[in-house]
Amino acid sequence: MSENSEKIEVEGIVKESLPNATFRVEISPGKVILGIISGKMRIHHIKILPGDKVRLELSPYDLSKGRIVYREK
After folding, report:
1. Is residue 25 a contact partner of residue 56, using CB atoms and an 8 Å limit?
2. From 3.30.1330.90, 2.40.50.140, 1.20.1250.40, 3.40.50.300, which CATH number describes the 3-71 domain?
3. What confidence tier does 4 reach under pLDDT thresholds 50, 70, 90?
């Protein structure tokens, strides 16, 4: 299996900004997880603010953390 087929993609809204490019993201009403900016977003200086709609990749092994891979316009 390739790595991408194992990832779970979800969309959510950034609720809070934390240190070290980490965010609290609400993916469904009442379900909040930790989101970390992906490396490409760091390199290209993509700014994320509370209230932004983002796309996350979750690992099937740990559903409490995710990688933020896209910020919706």
Report:
1. yes
2. 2.40.50.140
3. low
Measured CA to CA in angstroms, residue 72 lies from 2, 18, 29 at distances of 26, 20, 19
Contact 72, 63 (CB under 8 A): no
Answer for the pair 61, 49: CB distance below 8 angstroms, yes or no: no
The pTM for the full model equals 0.87
**Residue 4 phi, psi (nearest 5):** -65, -30
Number of residues assigned to the chain: 73
Angstrom CA distances, 50 to 15, 23, 54, 55, stand at 5, 8, 10, 14
Q: Give me the pLDDT at residue 28, please.
A: 92
